Amino acid sequence: MPTARESLLDAALSALAGLPWSGVRMVDVASAAGVSRQTLYNEFGSKDGLARALVRREADVYLRGVDRALAEHTGAADRMVEVVEWTLGSARSSALVRALLTGCWGERLPAPSTRAVAALSPVPAQRRADAGVPGPAELVAAVRDRAIAALEKEAPGADPAELGRYCETAVRLGLSCVVAPPARGEGHAGYIRAVLARLPARAAG
After folding, report:
1. Using alpha carbons only, what angle is made at residue 197 by residues 191 and 200, rounded to the nearest 5 degrees?
2. What is the structure's pLDDT at 40?
3. Does the predicted TM-score (pTM) go above 0.90?
């Protein structure tokens, strides 16, 4: 059973599907979640706090998916292709993930600052959200570092610098496919594999 916080975040996300963020009202979010407006304010402090928490949750969901993609496959290319596929699917299904990856926040979306605000909330999860959401460069770095850690375990003798470039290239290729998808008929997986195949083989073990 979801907590009140999760129910409120779900309600806010559902409201955002039909309204611009400026049109989402706190009283309606609380009502949709089946909790009092005071509970909403206790959890998030303000509408800006709710926005930060909503974006932080979407970033966390995306990164957990990256971890799954890396854990459920073997081989450098297979793992990185799966990360790219997850990234593309996430960007298609979540406008917030797309905005996090590209830094392009439309008028319909909450665009919380990546800067931290004063950590005054008594709610630990909200203090984490208030600490700031990742910008595109930070998110790319987080995915790259997760990929490096996974591939190092599989190929402990790989050159660290080349492995880092390999992972960074794959992540940035995925991001390029989010911004400008390959031509129709050219699959993302094939495109990524073809580029990665040109990188030094020893980077992938």
Report:
1. 145
2. 96
3. no
Question: Looking at 18-32, 72-86, 102-116, 187-201, which range is the least confident one?
Answer: 187-201
The two tokens of residue 73 are 């496959």
Q: Burial of 29 by CB count in 10 Å (0-12 exposed, 13-18 middle, 19+ buried)?
A: buried
Dist. CA 100–CA 134, nearest whole Å: 7
Neighbours of 116 (CB within 10 A): 12
No. of helices (H) and no. of strands (E), the chain: 10, 0
Q: Is the dihedral of CA 43, 45, 50, 51 positive or negative?
A: negative
The whole-angstrom separation of Cα 5 and Cα 33 is 9
Q: How far apart are CA 25 and CA 191, in angstroms?
A: 43
For the chain, what is the mean pLDDT? 87
Kindly report the number of other CB atoms within 10 A of residue 78's CB atom. Answer: 14
The rounded distance, in Å, linking the Cα atoms of 198 and 205 is: 14
Whole-number Cα distances in Å, 165 to 70, 144, 157, 173: 17, 9, 15, 12
